[in-house]
Predict the 3D structure of the following.
Amino acid sequence: MKRFLTHPWLTIRVQIALGAIFVIAALPKIADPPSFAHMIYNYRLVPSSMINISALAMPWVELLAGLALILGVWKTAARNVVAIMLAVFIIAISINLFRDNAIDCGCFNVADRGKTHEQRIFDMKVDVFRDLGMLLMVGQLWWAGKREEDEQLSRNP
Amino acid sequence: MKRNTLVQTAALIGAGLVIAIVANAFASRDRKLAIVGTYPNALKVPAREVAPPPVQPVTAVPTTTTTSPPTATATTATQPTATAAITTVGLNPAAKTPAATTTTTTAPTPHAPQPTPPSEDHFLPHPDKPYVEIAFADVKTLHGRNVLFLDALRTSVYEQGHIAGARPYSVWESDIEDKVRKLFDERSDPRDQSLPIVIYCSGGDCEDSHMLAQKLWGIQFNNLYVYKDGFPDWQQHNAPIHTGANP
């Protein structure tokens, strides 16, 4: 089982899939920063002065990290960035679930979809589980990377 | 974590930040963001609006046709002094808005038929409140009087359709401070600042109109009305609509 979960065949596919998800998620935000700023504002967690700069920078960081994973460049750094972002998203959505502040997560779509409170709360729960799933993918990459390092060390002590 | 990995992680984040700032500098007007925005209540969770319970039909009471007073809900606070406001036009008007002390009060609901005051009395300046929320009937009245209408929706949405005569004033676009400053220049006379202005967005939980009202109230406009049900309600009533970039 451990051998399968850390096999390069699986690792490369997880890496490309995770990279593609981040690239796809970044594009609508890059195309419409004001709408993404509105989404960030709706979280009610980011100070007023930080909303716009977050809305501008976050999608580009997502895009660069996604591209790095797809191309296999700076894999470890890209994996770290993705892990940090996923952790931030999970915490932010969870806080708002706890506060009963129903929001559109703005993860893949920055348009206001006119949902009801209940629909938004349900979607937020789905988003948390989806992000946890992606965090598991990051875990697989980390585990495979660690195994690769260990093997290299054992070959060249 | 290895030092090399840390440097690469920082480089990825730094590169994202630099590209973002450069891309924003070259972005079109409706896609551009001010690097530092001003959003009152950025950390304040909005109270959830709960729909009122259904009203039981009353059969014994004879019906009387009345027009409800315009003010349904008003937000009260203290308006900044004129001198302070004028010196900070467009810089950070919301910062001096006492949002933390803002309280919402609801005017008495007309359970019993009440005489309707003369329409001239409906829309008096209210310097103690940033805005007063009004419904379609009052919005229509003000529209008939050629009052200034401001559309707080995104410019792209404005161009698809807006209340006839309304100007685009999206609070999420980078030129909002310039537009607010221009409006202040247009209406620099205190008498002009007391003229009614109606602001709307998409109704429901849309707060853009309220944010814009707070900005304007912060620079001495003291007769602001927020169309609570917004543009969808205007459309439902088949009221006049314009499309395109011009009011």
Summary: The helical segments of chain B are 3-25, 82-87, 136-144, 155-160, 176-186, 190-193, 208-217, 230-236. Chain B touches chain A through 41 residues (CB under 8 Å).
